[in-house]
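User: Batch of two.

Assistant: Item 1 of 2:
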Amino acid sequence: MPGLLAYAIWFLGALLEAIVVVCAIKKKALRPYLFLNMYMAAELFASFFRYNILQHYGLSSPQYMYFYYYSDALLTIFLYLALTSLFVRVFSELHAEQYVRFGAVILLCATAAFSYAVVYQSQARFLTHFVVELSQNLYFVGLVLTYVLWAAVLKLRETRTRLIQLVLSLGVYFSLFAANYALGNLYPEAGSVLQYLPPIYGCFLPAAWAYAFWRIPEDSRLTPARLAVIR
């Protein structure tokens, strides 16, 4: 079973996820950032069910393992949709929302097809291997897309402060998880250490989004000079 510190980090992450949704409701940012809040709500529910399964069956049980990996794949798809919604907001002034949504669906299908091809030869636990591979690939796709989105923010001279905060925090989050997956593949012997890092990473994103919703008004704008400094 996880130790006291692991439980503390887990509960802190769940608390921060709940705070994001509450801040969004208080600041009337629930509907404008619907997919971001849906992702946070899904994370909160997943944490609740993971905890209950952990208490009933244990950390090494097949029930917990299957639920963890399958829920992680669904949460990664939710996060991908949240990232797509930020693309839509950035490109809304160009009236390119339909193209962004169509491209996002095509890329998601292509990532799923690639993941299927990677694990096609696997005979045992094919579905489990597929969802794990899909989650990893979506994190790397999300990382690349976030930096593409940031390049678009700079190119289009986007100055909405809250939107910039959300994009930057998502870029850091994807980078941390992509690095964790890469290190795990390169150094399998370090898996016992790396497995404790994702819960810590998981606290960063809701903390950054809660700050963005609570402290940064929707109509707040960065001056071009400050945007150049961030660049």
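Item 2 of 2:
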Amino acid sequence: MLLALGTAAIVLVVLMWELCRSHVLAALRRMRERLRTRPREAAQVNYDPGRERRAEQRARELLRSCVEPSDWEMYRDLGFLRVWGGLGEREHAAGASYAYLIYPHRPIVAYVPQTGALLNEYCVAFPDHSRPYGSARLPDADDVLAKWMALKADERRLIDEANMHLPGRQVDPDRVRRDLLRLSRWEREPRGVVARGAERAQAGGGAPGIVRAA
């Protein structure tokens, strides 16, 4: 009798599970989906579409206040900075044996000014540790300024701590050569002409601990 009752109870449990299984599994799937989308929903509520634009504008203003006027104009018009090797003054640096191009969120590229020959790429990163929206990426102008300050403050330390690669690892050599040609033309052109062109492009929507970067 007891054996029969036990068997009947087991059969009843199995039948109930078969009847409820689809509902239970569906409820579990819905719960997992809610847990997965909750962080995204929170981020969407807090995301400010203009935050990155305002952060870049503040970064550009800071860069402008820190570098020489000609360097600011170079970044504004061309999108990169040149730093002479040895960190000499500009009027005495034309004979420097090497120089650097600083791009936002790209390796620092060393080259020979007299010939345009590319020497090395130096990969460094400057994370934004405040990470207000979970991103460690600095605004473009802040990243350029951090690299410029590191070169000015202690060029040897930056080079020693960076990951050094041959040209072409992350920055297209053809792009660098085109940028060197642009820089050469820019230095020969009246600043007002270039500045007006840059302002028109912007109006139309155109285009610090050291951390090793891959």
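Residues 41-45, 88-93, 199-207 have pLDDT under 50 and may be disordered.
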